[in-house]
Each structure stands twice: as C-alpha cells, then as structure tokens.
Specification:
homodimer; zinc-finger (chains A, B); 8 helices; Helicase, Ruva Protein, domain 3; Dna Topoisomerase Vi A Subunit, Chain: A, domain 2; about 15% strand; 7 strands; elongated; about 45% helix; DNA recombination (chains A, B); DNA binding (chains A, B)
Chain lengths: ~200, ~200
C-alpha cells in the first residue's frame, strides 16, 4: 500500500536531496503535516521561490548573491591584488567565516573532470583570465579541493598563468587530503590560507 | 558573514525539520541552487501546496487521506469488528505494509501526556467511544508505542472500555521497548499483532 498521492509526491521530492532516503523523506513529510501549520508551509514555499528568483552569480567573481555584483567584490576595503580561486560559491562562505582572508574571490563553478566531460570551457575560467589581465592582480591563490580533479584544475590554472608576473599559490597543508572544502573546520581553513605555497 | 538573505531564509526553513542541523540545511539549500532547475523547484513547491491543500483526516478513523473517508474505512472486505488503535497516521501505513492486518484503524493523533498538558480531550478518543458504541465492534487492539505515555494511553482506553463486552488487547511482544512504532521492521510488527494479548 502506498501513501495518498499528495504525501507520496512530497516524499519523492525530498528524496532528491543528498543523504535523504525514503524513511527520512517520510519523516519530513509527516513533520510537514503534523508540526507545520498552513502559514509555516507558505513561508517555506516562499523561501523556495525567493531563492530561485533572487539568487544569481556575481558578474565579477561568480559568487552567489542577490545583487548584480556581490558584497565582497563591492567592498573597497578588500585587497583587490589577490584572488582566491574556489570550486563553488559555498567555499567562499566557508572561507569568509574564518575572517582571515581579505582579498577577492573567483568561483569556478566546478573542477576539470575529463571523465565527466567537464573541460575548461565549462568552468568560469575565461573570466579569470580576463580579470588577471585587466585588474592589478598580483597573486592568485588556488583553493580547489585536494581531490584529483581539484589538483588537476590547480595545475591547469598554474600552467596557463605561469608566464605572467603573477604569484600563483596553492592553499597549504591543513586541508586533509580527499576532503571537500565545505567539511573543513575554520581553523584548518585559516591555516591552509596562511600556509599557502607557491607552485 | 552571512549568506545572502534568500539563502539564509531557506536554511532557516530546512532547520525546522527533525535531524536537520545548520550544516545539513546549508547542503540542502546549495543542492537546491546547484542541482535543481527552476522547473524542479516548481514541482517541489507544488508538492508542498498540494499536501497542505489535499491531505486531511478521515472522518471515521482520522487516518490521513486525500478523501473525506479513507480507503481503509471504505473497503468492505475489511473486518469492521476489529479496530486497531494507533498514535499517528504514519503507524497505519507501517502496519498496512505488513499486509497481515485486515481490520480497521483508529488514529488518536498523539498520546496522553500530563507533563505536556495533553489530556483525553486532546486526542480523538471521543470518536473512538462513539465508534465502539455504534458499530458492531468486537475487539480493540491497542497499538500505542511501548513508551510510558503509550502505556498510559493504553491503560486509559482499557479502563474506559473494561465494563463493555469488547475484547481489549495490546499488541504483543515483538516491538522493542522504548522504540517508536515507525522504526519497527515489518516482521516485528506482524509478530506484535499476531501475539497481541488481552489486557
């Protein structure tokens, strides 16, 4: 026997989320029925709609923002001579939480992965080349994950930029090998930025 | 630093769900941004709206249904002389999955819990007394959880009905003590119904 259709549908939707199996999805749906009133579900629904309507990529660094240019790129107190390159917008927020880094960012929106058919043109790399040629950038810190794809991407960026005057560094020890950046604690992330080494 | 407001809002909403902490909520939101397109989010939103619009309590047994009377109460092949009393609608679906029980249900929508101020009037108990007096009910199986509140509720029902001709039983061994019914496997639930004992 199945649940009524409306329950079954929302279970299916919840199961699209990472780490949510059928049992967890069922708990979520029954929580929605039993613990959230109509007004609260409306708020939830509105939050979904607002997210998709308002969140976009910053025109400069591709960080997520509800504006055209993100508040980091807009901030004149930040050191615009350093660009820290990350895989995803989430990594920007993780690093910002350390309050250690005062430069700018560049979000690639992924990593090079020939096996999955993801090449340089699929990432925001062209914009990075534009930024380093136009702006007074002195240093690039590459903070892609220490996975194989992350390392490949770091190497690729280094090779493209190695004949320029730019200092190219990689965040240093501190980030455990094989771990995604989003799982690293703030101290580890601070250390990693502090101990970056030239590549 | 916080996330943009639209991201922060949906994180807050996800954190209302059981077992969802801040990190998990963040993952869910970034999954929504990165992996679900506008159409998929629309489907999700619609599923929430449909759930709140369509799902109601069965007028007879208070099971969840998208109809006025649930398909179990409507089913003429079921044995209407037995009513199995459960705490929540979710328990109905758990027991239905065993395909062992052919009687009807009655959903209390909670358990007696004086500490939380939940008394007999807060549960669908009056409807249960109505059903047993009106219909040709011969047996009541009480399947509340084996927690203190579940046991108290079972005892309360037994006391109210003990001067009637009804056979009153409690689901038997099989359900581990202290476990909520929804976590029990199907075999355990089947056993528990089979081994019910008169109280």
């Amino acid at each position: 026997m199945n649940f009524p259709k409306s329950i079954e549908n929302l279970i299916t939707e919840f199961m699209k989320y990472p780490g949510v199996g059928r049992k967890t999805a069922e708990r979520f749906v029954f929580h929605t029925i039993n613990k959230l009133d109509k007004e609260e579900v409306k708020t939830m629904v509105q939050a979904f709609i607002d997210l998709k309507d308002n969140i976009k990529h910053c025109q400069v660094c591709h960080n997520l923002t509800d504006d055209d240019v993100c508040h980091i790129c807009k901030d004149e107190h930040r050191d615009s001579s350093i660009i820290l390159v990350v895989e995803n917008a989430k990594d920007v927020f993780s690093i910002e939480e350390t309050s250690q880094y005062k430069g700018l960012y560049h979000v690639l929106n992924g990593v090079l992965s020939p096996a999955d058919g993801i090449g340089p043109d699929d990432l925001f790399l062209k914009d990075l080349w534009d930024r380093v040629s136009k702006d007074k950038v002195k240093e690039i810190i590459i903070a892609t994950s220490s996975t194989q794809e992350g390392e490949t991407t770091a190497l690729y960026i280094k090779r493209v930029l190695e004949n320029t005057d730019l200092i190219i560094s990689r965040i240093g020890y501190g980030v455990p090998v094989g771990l995604n950046l989003e799982y690293a604690d703030q101290l580890t992330l601070s250390k990693a930025i502090e101990n970056r080494k030239k590549i």
